[in-house]
Design goal:
single chain; 290 residues; alpha/beta; three-stranded parallel β-sheet; 10 helices; 38% helix; binds zinc ion
């Protein structure tokens, strides 16, 4: 019988001896040793690339066609709403329900301001004089997108937001507004019709995307293949799906979405917000190890 205050040997107390604990610690610490080379940029769960499906301008065909295709495949998309969207005004509850299902509502300003004189000499006759970025100031576009963040907060309760430059334009009154909106957003989607290859050096508020229009499913899948080859990020910039403006057919959209669902282990498809949260985490990890 054990006496009060008696200290029993370790093997009887069934406790690890102090030197065993020290050995366990030694076995673990080398993995985190300072000075080790950091691993390269990595996508989650061994994926080879990331894919983001974005849909601009708040259209009915996105609620009616794009979202059901995504839901059927178990994929999430990002929907860039301008505050003046007629679909948003008429079908507010459906847009709110879309967010509740895990899709992202993104900021596309209130009045969809664009340059009248676009790149390569293109004149956009449809841009109303009141909403031409040539006549805006940097402060005005900043204030407009900040106000749209409040509208979106009322819709989905989210305080972290991403932005899509209207018409991919990044200037107002002849000056860049990229840095003015930087504090308002986790990330912002630009144009350029290309993948992002080296994501470790990507500026989160100038993420390239492809404005796909009138293309086949095979062409859409080929864009993902470029990202797989480069270990990068493929961001699609869709508008109408199966109708409305700058459309891609429902058939082509379904083909892409089906392919992404079947290849989800290689190509990680998620919202712009979730993908860019990962990108910025990886960028911080790499910067801290330099
Ligand atoms: Zn737009």
């Amino acid at each position: 019988m054990r006496m009060r205050g008696q200290v029993l040997p370790y093997h009887i107390r069934n406790e690890p001896r102090p030197f065993v604990i020290v050995m366990l610690l030694l076995c673990v610490t080398p993995l985190a040793r300072a000075g080790d080379a950091p691993g390269p940029f990595a996508w989650p769960n061994g994926a080879k690339a990331a894919v983001v499906l974005t849909y601009d301008d708040g259209m009915d065909t996105q609620l009616d066609n794009a979202a059901p295709d995504l839901d059927a495949a178990g994929l999430k998309g990002t929907f860039y709403l301008p505050g003046h969207s007629e679909s948003l005004a008429k079908r507010l509850a459906e847009w709110r329900a879309l967010a509740a299902r895990g899709h992202e509502l993104g900021n596309h300003a209130i009045f969809h301001p664009c340059l009248r004189n676009g790149p390569n000499g293109a004149v956009r006759e449809w841009v109303r004089p009141e909403y031409q970025l040539e006549g805006y100031t940097v402060q005005r576009i900043r204030d407009e997108v900040a106000a749209m963040n409040t509208t979106l907060l009322a819709l989905d309760g989210e305080t972290t937001r991403t932005f899509a430059y209207d018409c991919c334009d990044t200037t107002a009154g002849g000056r860049s507004y990229v840095d003015a909106i930087r504090p308002l957003f986790l990330a912002a989607r630009a144009g350029e019709d290309r993948i992002a290859g080296d994501v470790s050096a990507l500026d989160p508020v100038l993420v390239p995307s492809w404005a796909a229009t009138d293309v086949s499913g095979a062409q859409l899948i080929a864009f993902v293949q470029k990202a797989l080859d480069a270990g990068g990020l493929a961001v699609f910039q869709f508008h109408g799906i199966g109708g409305e403006w700058i459309p891609v057919s429902r058939e082509a959209h379904r083909e892409l979405v089906g392919w992404l669902a079947a290849n989800r282990a290689r190509a990680w498809t998620d919202t712009f917000k979730r993908v860019m949260t990962h990108v910025e985490g990886e960028q911080r990890r790499l910067a801290a190890s330099r």
